[in-house]
Amino acid sequence: MASKKSSEKIQLGKKIKEIIFSSQGFPIFLSFTTLAILFVLFRMKNVEMDYTISKTNREIEKVIMDNKELKAKKARMLSADKLRKLAMAHHLDQPTQDQIIVIP
After folding, report:
1. Angle formed by the axes of helices 2-20 and 25-77, to 10°?
2. Is the overall model pTM greater than 0.70, yes or no?
3. Do residues 18 and 11 lie in contact, with contact meaning Cβ atoms separated by under 8 Å?
4. How is residue 15 annotated by DSSP?
5. Residue 46's Cα: distance from chain center in Å?
6. Which residues in 43-103 belong to E strands, given as ranges?
7. What is the pLDDT of residues 5-29, one digit of tens each?
8. 29 contact partners, CB below 8 Å, separation of at least 6
């Protein structure tokens, strides 16, 4: 009984080899193999692109946060109180009327 199953497996294996390596079967086998490899490669490239997009989005969020922090720092530096303190520290006074030049 066991020898019958093993001989059937051997015959089945030979039949599959004959079909795959025949003049009609080999191009089909080659096409399916090529398609399978291309599918895997495209899937890997898709995953790689997803990682790249995620990394770029994180960098964009970081730059946006840095920009907000810099705008807040600029606002603090240009506040009226800060400018008055700097003017007093450098002995600056309000300009007189003849010191003001209007540029049209």
Report:
1. 80
2. no
3. no
4. H
5. 11
6. none
7. 677 777 888 887 787 777 788 888 8
8. 20
